[in-house]
Amino acid sequence: MMSDILTRLSAVPSRPHGATETTDETYDRQLRDLVTYLKQPGLVPSTTDPNEYLQVLSPSTHSLSFLYLLRFHIQQAQKRTKRDIPDVLQPGGILWKWAVRFLRSFDPIQIRYSIHEWRQLVEVVASAALTTSKSFLALKVTRDALEQLGLCGIFTSTHLLLVRLALLSSSYTYALPITNQLLYHFPTDADHVHHGYLSCSEHAPTTTLVTNASGISSKLTHRDHLQYFLYSAMIYMALKKWDEACHCLNAVITSPTSNAVSKIMVEAYKKWILVNLLGYGKVISCSIVVSLHDVGAWLIDLNAQIPPTSKMIAPHVMRVYQSVARPYISVAEAFEKGELQKMITEIDLGQTMWQADKNTGLVSQLFEAYDKFVIVKLGKTFSALTMADVLQRTSSTAQSPLQIEEFVASLVMSGALRANLSHTPHENGTTMLRLSLGSRSDTCRQEHIRAELIRARTALNAIAQGVTQTDQTLELSRENLQFLAKSQKWSGNSDKISSSGEAGGGGDIDEDIMGDGQ
Amino acid sequence: MDLLQSDIAEAAYPPYATQTAAAAGGMDMEISNGNTTASTGPFVRVDDAPKFELDSYIANYTGRTRFNRLYLIGTCSTYLSVEALKAAVAEAKSGKDLSRYERAVQALAEVAPGEAEAVFDRQWADRLQKVVKSETDRLEHELRGYKNNLIKESIRMGNEDLGHHYHQTGELGSAFKAYSRMRDFCTTTSHIASMLFKVISVSIERADWLSVQSNVHRLRGLQSKPDDEQAKNAPKISAALGLAQLNSGSYLEAATSFLATEPTLGDSYNEVLSSNDVAVYGGLCALASMDRNELQRRVLDNSSFRNFLELEPHIRRAISFFCNSKFRPCLEILEAYRADYLLDIHLQRHVQTLYTRIRTKSIQQYLVPFNRVSLQSMAKIFVLETPANQSNSTDLNSAFVQELIGLIQDGTLDSRIDLEKHVLVSNQGDKRIELQEATLGSLQNYVNEAHLRLLRANVVSAGLEVRPLADDRRAKMEERGGKRSTIGNLFSRVPGMKP
């Protein structure tokens, strides 16, 4: 009996990379048959010991069978104990071990055939770790599972889960491998995805998975992707990676809207102002945001003149931002103009607001950032000056030349300022700050540039791939557009787009999640 | 009587008064806007004694500009106020403009109430009022008669007489209209030219520089037959154009126009400006807007402009000092004449701007050959105060160092200050590194922007844009009715998250 089942279960091993013995078509049929077989009820007796089968099967070669068996055992345990999270599934439990082992080593190609079950497993494992307040374990498992699946640019509910776990467990760096990926694709309804790929093909673009029918993600609403980017930004903020944080926040605040502004966007805008100040010393006036046209409007009216500098933020959204985030804007103005006293007053005035918005931490960093940017700016005017002069021109936190010297030294050490300090030989002599323009050694620079170029190349490749995929999904080839324009079917097409949006509404997350999420 | 009331109302905001007020000590950089806005700021106060003799200065001018200049000097200079205002009262009394007389008497009464001229001559004023009124009526009546007879030449002359009369009595708006009406009745080009000159003269007095410019261009386009007449008009045209450009703040163009003015101008345009003025305006504009080579070539080596410069030798000296990189004498000369120029009706608003530009240019020029230059040696040239104050002129807080800091911060000077060795070091950045960094920056920007754009397209295509709450609620109700995963829900309320 058991051996029969095992033969069936291990009938379709995963194909090694580049193998050609079985064609895509056969493999596809075999996998579909296997899934149908696995889905029939009462495959294995409910009394079986979990270890019995799981020990024999390898999670990496027989991923589908392993997944279904594991799932079966979890369901059994849930039924037995009448709890969502039975003890055996909790960290240290027997099923936990198998689940973790599976999620680290499964075969992503096979899993494409039952991605819905995979997602449920990830979620149940994560919640098992959470119920025992081990959010860090949940984070690690989720991250490993997502990395193993290797989705390319697709946003799923699992991503949101991941960043939330990262914030919960305060282990920010663990989420970086996932948040550093560029996300740009969302699961859509399958009906207008035409492709000639089989799911098992190695060359199939991952976008073929991206249908709501595949169950790769729970139903998404606008809140999900907004939250994901906001949480990612918060992870970067915690790590003081202002560039990345700013980019994530940009993604939130420029999100397309139809007659409404999400509270998440407003929160993001507030943080965006602070992050700009902390990262750049000034609010960059949406310059990277400008010059993007509204794709939605463009789809609807092809003939409309697109102003090249129209902003991505709709004017009515901008008005909402500006009215709600007034205290932040005042602080930013004072910061930019270098009016320290005014900034301190504004910050004092806004105390309740910072607390309510949970931005006190960011606001308190403003003082140091202010000093930092003043000193960096001094470097543009002076090539050398004494600490007393520096103190006179900065602010706030430091009271004596000695304190400011410590601060400057920390800036120099962290690489934010290229300068060197020199003590005069006299006793109680002053310290001279020498600001150099570009003193990094040549080889060091070249290495740096090289690394940057490689990074930029990866990013560009990802973007290019995304553009191709999006063009396909949106049916935006030049010929198609010309054809459509000719046959005057634009009105019909735009109806279809807006109606597909209706289906994406709704979700499990409650309205006030933002308050908790700080 | 209506006429008179409107007249006085207009006089309350005389064009020059508003202009100088708007300038507020020559600090106003918004020169082009200063013409039309009527604000009531403080006048420029000039306490230093100017170098010129009032009598000989004013003798250079004829016509209405005499009063305007006298009045300006009287109200701005504390040193010359009584003398100038007395002359202004006398000047006004010899004319037919009642409002001017009132202004001059009022101003004099404020400065020197004891003077005999400070008392308002009511009898004379009443008489003048009556004379003006009857004259206006007479001229308008005559013009109506000419119009009935449909004789072009008579209508033109009637309008001209009326315009002249209005101009004399200070109704500049009506004068402008009357002169403009002449256009249709001009039969020869010389008529048109004389009409345009009259319009320009009124426009200059009204400080309507746009109109001056457009009429100058009309004059230029005129094909006048007799060459000598063209030759006679050309210098006046250039001077008027230069004046308009000076007042609209285009100093380089103004310099070009003044430099192109023929020396035959002589005293033919004294109702607007004298040859001395051309030298000063042209010289200062050129000094502020041209580099050393250009100055040498276009000003000092310009044989026709040399005639003007001979009238104002200190301007020529200043320019040649600048060309020879002797900045201190150059700046000293200019500083010595600052009071004079602040009392000039056209130059007043621009003195500060012109001087600042010249000074900035001097500093820039001075720094060209240096890699590093000590602040001490710079202060020796550019701090114009007495040597006693020079000892601390290289401190961080001295005015000179602050000026340098300002210039560095607004990007005029590409150098940095070394306060240890007290030198100014010119920046020699590595262009290669700058370029590399700029390229990487733009790459990153591109990736970011493309990502945002891509994301946006996909959000819209997936129907995930932010929509009004009502839609959501409905969708949610539907969702609640349907299947609901228990596990996915566990994470919806997790308290105590830390950013």
UniProtKB/TrEMBL annotation, chain A:
Region (Disordered): 1-25, 487-518
Occurrences of domain PCI (ranges): 244-435
Keywords of the record: Cytoplasm, Nucleus, Signalosome
Places the protein is found: Cytoplasm; Nucleus
PROSITE patterns in the cross-refs: PCI
Acidic residues: bias regions: 508-518
TM ranges: none
InterPro entries membership: COP9_N, CSN3, PCI_dom
Family assignment from sequence similarity: Belongs to the CSN3 family.
UniProt subunit comment: Component of the COP9 signalosome (CSN) complex.
Protein name as annotated: COP9 signalosome complex subunit 3
Organism: Aspergillus keveii
TrEMBL record, chain B:
PROSITE patterns: PCI
Residue ranges of every copy of the PCI domain listed in the record: 250-431
Stretches the record annotates as Disordered: 476-499
InterPro entries xref list: PCI_dom (IPR000717), Rpn7/CSN1 (IPR019585), Rpn7_N (IPR045135), WH_DNA-bd_sf (IPR036390)
Keyword Cytoplasm belongs to the record: yes
Annotated keywords: Cytoplasm, Nucleus, Proteasome, Signalosome
Intracellular or extracellular location(s): Cytoplasm; Nucleus
GO cellular component labels: proteasome complex
Subunit comment: Component of the COP9 signalosome (CSN) complex.
Family, similarity comment: Belongs to the CSN1 family.
Protein name, per record: 26S proteasome subunit RPN7-domain-containing protein
